[in-house]
Amino acid sequence: MIVKPDVFWLGLVASQGKLVRVCLSYSEESTRENLGIKRSEKASTSSLLQSLRWDLADYWKGKRVDFSKYSLELASYSSFSKKVWAQTRLIPYGEVRSYKWVAERIGSKGFQAVGKALGNNPFPIIVPCHRVIKEDGELGGFSSGLGIKRKLLKIEGFLND
DNA sequence: ATAGTTGTACCGA
DNA sequence: TCGGTACAACTAT
């Protein structure tokens, strides 16, 4: 399913009651390409996606939405990545932590590897990798574009404007 | 084996 | 404060 809650597009894929992938992008085309969703496909009737869609709409309005009820399809990922994402999901709405904090919490010194795992995050927003920034307060990177990271942090009230 | 990360710390100017 | 650089753990090739 593809929705456009703001200036960017959001592609959502679910299967068997679990979220498989989320894609954030500035263009509808790249979202479709990324997820392999054809224009001809009908809107999903999956209740999971319907629910997620409303939650995301609320989220964009600035409502404090809790995405932790959604289960993720993680079978094909490394245990390190799973740990990083699980830890990242624990960061509360509107707060941020550093890559180092995440690494320490999962018993690793590889803070840069944390960045890499977050870069591979298949569930942006649901796994709030935008809440992970550098130790010195800089934003760090974001695979879907730093502008989107900034936007998300603004929605959550962490950044102004 | 090697190169490339969404990083951190330390040093010198 | 800024730039260079050494280093860290992990992934992908």
Feature tags:
5 strands; DNA-binding; 6 helices; single chain; alpha+beta; 161 residues; Arc Repressor Mutant, subunit A
Q: Layout of SSEs?
A:
Elements: E1 2-3, E2 9-15, E3 18-25, H1 28-35, H2 47-60, H3 79-89, E4 97-98, H4 99-105, H5 111-119, E5 132-133, H6 146-155
Parallel strand pairs: 4-5
Antiparallel strand pairs: 1-2, 2-3
This protein binds a DNA duplex (13 and 13 nucleotides) through residues 78, 80-81, 98-100, 103, 108-121, 129, 132-136, 139-143, 146, 149.
Q: Short summary of the structure?
A:
This protein is α+β, with helices and mostly antiparallel strands and 161 residues long. It has helices at residues 28-35, 47-60, 79-89, 99-105, 111-119, 146-155; strands spanning 2-3, 9-15, 18-25, 97-98, 132-133. The protein folds into two domains: 2-60, no CATH class; 79-155, Winged helix-like DNA-binding domain superfamily/Winged helix DNA-binding domain (Arc Repressor Mutant, subunit A).
Can you offer a commentary on this structure?
The chain has helices spanning 28-35, 47-60, 79-89, 99-105, 111-119, 146-155, and strands at residues 2-3, 9-15, 18-25, 97-98, 132-133. With 161 residues, it is α+β, with helices and mostly antiparallel strands. It folds into two domains: 2-60, no CATH class; 79-155, Winged helix-like DNA-binding domain superfamily/Winged helix DNA-binding domain (Arc Repressor Mutant, subunit A, Orthogonal Bundle), CATH 1.10.10.10. A three-stranded antiparallel sheet has the order 1-2-3, sandwiched between helices. The protein has a two-stranded parallel sheet with strand order 4-5. Helix 4 packs across helix 5 (111-119). The longest helix is centred in the N-terminal third of the chain and has 14 residues, at 47-60. The relative contact order is 0.14. The protein binds a DNA duplex (13 and 13 nucleotides) through residues 78, 80-81, 98-100, 103, 108-121, 129, 132-136, 139-143, 146, 149.
